[in-house]
Design brief:
The complex is a heterotrimer. In chain A, 73% of the residues lie in helices and 1% in strands. By secondary structure, chain A is an all-alpha fold. By secondary structure, chain B is α/β, with parallel strands linked by helices. Chain B is built from 11 helices and 13 strands. The chains are: A mainly alpha, B alpha/beta, C mainly alpha.
Chain lengths: 503, 331, 167
């Protein structure tokens, strides 16, 4: 067990008061920036980066990665309480987390989110601990066809799930894909769908769209129904926490499946965002009662949160081992590593053992301490729901505007967000599903780029998606999921005829 | 109140006489605009500048890095162009200032901005996977010429420096490549190591870690002379041991500027301040270490030297891109 | 807020009509995007799809689905309300201030506009005492300002007031 020895080395490096204090600072700041709209993990890390220039690398990475864990924890808070996802991977958390909050189960939802985040990252860290050296090789196996297969799998796990009218699901997804295509096409370097507007050059930012679609439209709907964000006094006592924790073992399949998805997509460079969606979709698909998802099922919080955090955690691995960031925050940490004089890459694990294992050890410690801190904040955030709606509503509007503006420093984005708010309101009222739209916005252009790179590489031959076992099995799995309803029906019929014959 | 104003002018004059003309200084945080994504070469350079200026107290106000990599960096250019006369931001520009207006018809010209200084030239190297047998550029290009389907060449973005260079190589050797435009140089590097491409033309910094780990082979550098750094980097090899492509019989030379630009129409004393700032910056150890680590060619070019260079470089890009068919005809 | 009264709440517009309008708008959008995608090249070249290939076929799919949706909406005889008069009034109570807020941000800067929005909304819609509204809004705006502008150096649109203070 060489890994355990190295891990102990890492823990030893952490056990100083200075580092523990920095961890605490990082976590608290992280939760703070995670909750604030428009800041989130990447910005938080970027803003604090200059402060770390004079620190030694281990202290610096510990503080910044703790900020990252804090932001991951904090991101769930606004998703559940206000239906405003702070990061791409918090979107799926809103699907069931927000309905739970509306039913006065905010404390339960928050507990579920934090706990499953903790479990997800813990499993991911354990995987990192024991598989770190070998994972780099696995990640290298991913070329454009493999990436496309993964995205296809995510999309396919989604199709055929909704209870809305078919054409509305199709429209929602097509619209998302089209909007994702606006701006510059990476593969040809051409501008498309911009109609000569320079403001459209940067494309439709995903977070801007989501803040409008979810945050603003929710305020409109709430106002219309006069629901007034009723937080039935969500008293958080240890009873609620205990009740949620007691049910955990019942959901072990969901938790394990989501962790596995998260770990897998996290180490796939750039795949982390797909994780929470896929975790949610698969939980829904394999449930006995998929229709009840979206109405406040606790699995609907467990599944995406576990996957998102497992992915967020394991995304740090390709960054350290390959120098390829798995997420936006990881990308900024990467910049930090260089400033501290470390070179992320295959040799980092050999040349800077103490740093690497100190980082991994801080993942364990940071997550445990993070969970404790964030649980203590639940009563405070649950109390926010008791503030009168007429005070909260304008503050949410302001937060949405700040968030939309801060992402790219553009006033145009604030207007775009407002537009998406109206679109979201109309779509909600007409029963157009919003989830396919957001999924398509997040993954649309990545999927397209991966597909077209595969085609350039293969000279336009579609068989490239079955050219080796890795891409072949993912692609096949995607198609199986796509046609699952048909396949499921066929199996049912076959077994029923079989049983009728034998009867 | 003529008296007071007279008094004011008198004292102002006295002050001017006492201290040699109050120089301009930033009054709020200065934004370093990066025309690329997080973690890329421009971003790293911005962080280096931020760290060097902060550690050496070269400026009182803090610096903020803002990433504007949308639309292959066009976002940053438009942003700079619209920030006319704003003295509190500068962009780290590279060859996109010539290529984007041509390939995507972005309404931009580097003359819209104020050139301040060029701080470095970035090199390009032809890299191949260490597992492949090619020991020389000739072996590689011969194999590429014979290959069907064509070899895959990885690079960053489409119709930009890497793509131009690939077209340049094609022209000189007669080999055909399937060019794969990745999102970043880092991605192009790992894709080469993973065997998904046969070669790439990354900057030294983008492939250095893979080189150190012995996963890739540096075939040749696209410059008139070898890189000057003689410290061993990969095994027994230093950057200086990488031959030039011309030595290897492939006569292609291409380097890329890393230049600082202020928005257009800024006051002359603002430009003076930044020229001074960068002059001090290039003396810092942080800058020197960074140049060596990234194998960049350190320069300090400003004023007329810089504009002359920009004009010449722009012409070259125009010519190369026209030949390669990268200039957009329709909008 | 008052309890729901028994007075008949007239629908302003029916779901069916909105459905038809939305379908038409989506169809128009699909045609517009499809046209632009076609212009930049929507065929399958030797090395795979061109820049406009996916957008073009996606617009066709979206256009087709909107046409289908249009047909469904026409055949739909249900008379459910999209929004009733009372509901519309309430939605506008929050939407109009938001719209004004976005305009105001461009001229007054984000912080002043935010102060006006929060205090105005609390006082006017929420019937909260004016001094309480102003106090809450002021505290909120100042906290936001300190967080973003001072602590995190995130630059927000600013107007004449901030300029007067040298920001």
């Amino acid at each position: 067990m060489e890994a355990l020895g190295l891990l102990m080395l890492g823990f030893k490096a952490l056990m100083t008061w200075k580092i523990l204090a920095l961890m605490l600072v990082g976590l608290v700041l992280g939760i703070f920036v995670g909750v604030l709209p428009g800041l989130g993990g990447p910005n938080g890390v970027a803003i604090l980066l200059p402060l770390t220039f004079s620190m030694d690398p281990t202290s610096a990475i510990v503080m910044l990665s703790c900020l990252y864990w804090g932001a991951l924890f904090g991101g769930a808070i606004t998703s559940i309480l206000f239906n405003i996802p702070g990061e791409a991977w918090s979107v799926a958390t809103t699907f069931d987390g927000y309905p739970m909050a509306q039913q006065g189960r905010a404390a339960e939802a928050l507990t579920a989110a934090f706990t499953s985040s903790f479990i997800g990252s813990l499993i991911a860290v354990m995987m990192i601990t024991f598989l770190a050296p070998r994972i780099a090789d696995f990640a290298l196996k991913f070329g454009p066809p493999e990436f496309f297969a993964v995205y296809l799998l995510t999309f396919c796990s989604f199709v055929g799930l909704g209870k809305e009218a078919r054409q509305k699901i199709v429209i929602s997804m097509a619209l998302g894909l089209l909007l994702a295509g606006v701006g510059m096409d990476t593969v040809s370097g051409q501008l498309r769908l911009t109609f000569g507007f320079t403001e459209l050059l940067r494309g439709v930012n995903f977070l801007v769209a989501v803040i409008g679609l979810f945050g603003i439209s929710e305020i409109l709907v709430t106002m219309e129904e006069r629901l007034a964000l009723q937080g039935h006094p969500a008293s958080l006592s240890f009873k609620v926490v205990w009740q949620v924790w007691k049910t955990l073992p019942r959901y072990w399949v969901t938790l394990l499946r989501s962790s596995a998805i998260g770990c897998w997509l996290g180490i796939t460079p750039g795949g982390a965002i797909a994780a929470s969606f896929m975790g949610y979709n698969l939980a829904k698909r394999f449930d006995k009662n998929p229709e009840s998802f979206g109405t406040g099922r606790i699995e609907g919080v467990f599944a995406p949160e576990t996957a998102a955090h497992a992915a967020g955690t394991s995304a740090l691995l390709p960054m350290l081992a390959l120098g390829i960031p798995g997420s936006g925050t990881a990308a900024i940490l990467l910049g930090g590593l260089m400033v501290w004089g470390l070179n992320p890459g295959p040799l980092l694990f050999v040349e800077h053992k103490e740093f690497v294992w100190g980082t991994i050890a801080s993942m364990y410690l940071g997550n445990v301490i993070g969970l404790i801190i964030v649980m203590c904040t639940v009563p405070f955030f649950a109390a926010v729901l008791r503030v009168p709606f007429s005070a909260v509503a304008p503050m949410i509007v302001v937060s949405c505007a700040i968030g939309a503006y801060a992402i790219q420093n553009a006033m145009f984005d604030v207007w775009l967000m407002l537009g998406f708010g109206v679109l979201g309101y109309v779509f909600k009222k007409l029963d157009y599903p919003l989830a396919p739209l957001t999924l398509a916005l997040v993954l649309g252009s990545r999927a397209e780029d991966a597909f077209r790179l595969s085609m350039i590489g293969a000279g336009g031959d579609l068989r490239v998606f079955w050219s080796n076992w890795l891409v072949g099995s993912i692609a096949t799995l995607a198609l199986v999921l796509l046609f699952w309803p048909v396949i499921g029906m066929a199996i049912e019929r076959a077994t029923s005829t079989f049983s009728s014959k034998t009867a | 109140m003529p008296k007071i104003s007279q008094l004011f002018y008198a004292s102002a004059l006295a002050l001017c006489a006492a201290t040699p003309a109050l120089a301009w200084e930033p009054t709020k945080p200065v934004e370093i605009v990066v025309a690329a994504g997080a973690g890329g070469a421009s971003d790293q350079m911005a962080r280096m500048i931020q760290a060097a200026i902060q550690k050496n107290n070269l400026m009182k106000q803090p610096m903020v890095v803002s990433l504007k990599g949308g639309a292959s960096g066009a976002e940053a250019l438009i942003y700079m162009k619209s920030g006319e006369a704003d003295a509190h931001k500068f962009v780290i520009a590279y060859s996109l200032i010539y290529t984007l207006p041509l390939s995507a018809k972005i309404p931009f010209n580097w003359r819209d901005l104020t050139p301040v200084a060029i701080l470095a030239f970035d090199q390009f190297i032809l890299w191949t996977n260490a597992k492949d047998p090619y020991k020389s550029v000739k072996e590689f290009t011969d194999a590429a010429k014979a290959a069907t389907p064509p070899f895959k060449m990885g690079g960053t973005g489409s119709k930009r420096e890497d793509h131009i260079l690939t077209a340049f190589i094609e022209k000189r050797t007669g080999a055909k490549f399937a060019y794969l435009p990745y999102k970043s140089g880092g991605e192009a590097a790992t894709q080469l190591v993973g065997g998904h491409t046969a070669a790439n033309v990354n900057n030294p910094s983008e492939n250095v870690e893979e080189w150190r780990a012995g996963q890739v082979r540096a075939q040749c550098v696209f410059d008139a002379e070898r890189i000057s750094y003689k410290v061993k980097v990969s095994g027994d090899l230093s950057w200086n041991d990488v031959p030039t492509c011309k030595e290897q019989g492939l006569d292609v030379q291409y380097t890329m500027l890393r230049g600082m630009f202020l928005p257009g129409k800024v006051a002359p004393d603002v430009t003076t301040f930044y020229v001074d700032l960068f002059k001090k910056l290039v003396q810092t150890t942080e800058y020197k270490d960074y140049m060596e680590k990234q194998a960049l060619k350190p320069v300090f070019m400003t004023g007329k030297d810089m504009t002359d260079f920009l004009q010449k470089d722009e012409e070259l890009h125009k010519q190369l891109m026209t030949e390669a068919g990268f200039v957009a005809t329709t909008n | 807020m008052t309890e729901v009264t028994s007075s008949p709440d007239r629908p302003v517009v029916r779901s069916r009509s909105v459905d038809i309008v939305v379908s038409l708008l989506l169809l128009a959008l699909a045609i517009l995007l499809g046209w632009d995608a076609h212009r930049i090249g929507a065929s399958w070249a030797d090395d795979g799809p061109q820049a406009g290939y996916f957008p073009f076929y996606l617009s066709i799919i979206m256009g087709g689905a909107s046409l289908y949706g249009l047909a469904v909406a026409f055949l739909d005889k249900s008379r459910g309300a999209f929004v009733t008069r009372e509901q519309l009034v309430r939605v506008m109570q929050v939407f109009v201030p938001t719209l004004v807020y976005c305009f105001a941000t461009q001229f007054l800067g984000l912080y002043v506009a935010s102060f006006l929005l929060v205090s105005g909304f609390m006082w006017w819609i929420g019937n909260i005492l004016i001094w309480k509204s102003i106090l809450v809004a002021f505290t909120f705006t100042v906290v936001m300002f300190l967080t973003f502008e001072i602590a995190f150096n995130v630059i927000m649109p600013k107007g004449p007031l901030e300029a007067a203070f040298g920001f």
